[in-house]
Amino acid sequence: MALYAELHRHLGGSVVPRILWGYFQRYQLSKAQDFPEYSEFEEYYTRERSSLDEYLELHTLVESVQTPQALPYFIYRLIRGAYIFENLAYLELRYTPYYRTDEALSPSERISQMQMIVEIVGQSSHVKEYPIVTSQILCIHSRLPYEVNKAIVDLASQMREYVCAIDIAGGDAHIAERLDEFIGLYRYARSLGLKTTGHLFETTNGCYPELLPYLMRIGHGIQIPLKYPELLKEVAQLNQCLEVCPTTYLKTGTLKNISDLKTVFDRCFDAGVDIAICTDNAGLHNVRLPFEYENLLTHNVIDFQQLEACQDAAFRHAFAWPYGKRPASMLTGLLQKPQDEKQLLPF
């Protein structure tokens, strides 16, 4: 029975190394020649990087193969793994649609092609044998021009059948030089009734309190409790949820040890700020959501009661979860009902 919600997973970083290596072996022998042995590819793909920018460069490797023709191949395997191995009931996939369009086209043609990309991702995410509630978060990008980013916001508003929110991606340090522009885009998105999250306060280079009033959730946000705990009161008042992705901070060098996250969780719980535990890039990390849970528990970052609170928060803050309760609560009711009915039988 699927029990968990994943609120922060990138489409580009969701492809596990074995699947990506197998795709190269089947369909792109030129790339396969660089890594004839799987073990070599896995080590390269999942190793720690020295910075967030270096880490994000890996997304370009996957984006280059996530073409309209290949997206169904990757998404089917993503959904299958999420259902079978991670017990996911709910999954939000985020990505920048412009980077899945044909690079040979003109910018205006690529903008037009984004609608087809959203449709392909949306349709491919609905797999009958693996019933997971899915939705998309479209990412504007800190390195894309304003015209493209505005088109992404407009597309999100027009395709609410598939899209539940917008985000900003591309490396948080690159937001600074265009901060007013991105504030304007978020203000515009909220005026359209769009839900919002954003990659902020992940590193010490990405702290922009000016954007906080426009967010409903915060992508990462760990520097708030670590460096700016005075902001936690505002975050709590805005009912914002932090999307904390533990393995990411080790892979990017943002934190030296997972135990450093104990301060994040303790201060957030004390301030009444919700946290959803997420994977971010499950493929790049070669980990799954239950591992993130277990790792936090075994390193005494959180206890079981706090874990359950985070799992509840994930469903409570999910942008497109259609039910009032998390699946575990509904399952408990179903299991108790036959017992109650049995007690009413006259024999």
State the gist of this model.
The protein is built from 16 helices and 9 strands.
Description:
- With 347 residues, the chain is an alpha/beta fold.
- Helix content is 49%, strand content 14%.
- It has 16 helices and 9 strands.
- The strands form 2 sheets. The protein has a 5-stranded parallel sheet. It has a 4-stranded parallel sheet with strand order 6-7-8-9.
- The protein is globular.
- The model has no long low-confidence stretch (mean pLDDT 90).
- One of its GO terms (cellular component) is cytosol.
- One of its GO terms (molecular function) is metal ion binding.
- It holds the Pfam family A_deaminase.
**DSSP helix count?**
16
Largest sheet: 5 strands, parallel
CATH-defined fold name: TIM Barrel
**Going across the major beta sheet, what is the strand order?**
1-2-3-4-5
> What is the CATH-assigned architecture?
Alpha-Beta Barrel
Estimate nothing, just give the exact number of structural domains: 1
CATH class: Alpha Beta
SS strand fraction: 5-15%
Helix content bin: 40-55%
Q: Which structural class do the helices and strands define?
A: alpha/beta
Which terms would index this structure?
347 residues; alpha/beta; TIM Barrel; five-stranded parallel beta sheet; four-stranded parallel beta sheet; 16 helices; 9 strands; 49% helix; globular
